[in-house]
What does this fold into?
Amino acid sequence: TAKDVIKRRLLTEIKKDLLFTRKTIAEIAYQLQFSEASSLIRFFSKQMGHSPAAYREFIKKSIL
It folds into this structure.
């Protein structure tokens, strides 16, 4: 559905920013037009099963 396409695109953008930038969660939320950082955290956690911070930390450890 269109809603699923939008969710996948948002997740892709969030993951890209978490991986390739040093932006805070609040900055990423603002950039992607979430009303608050907590909304982005809730969305990401529901879709991925863990928080954006945990995802960023996991990726950092995987690369090193």
Notes: The two ends are 37 Å apart (CA to CA). Residues 41 and 51 are 6 Å apart (CA to CA). Residues 2-20 form the longest helix (19 residues).
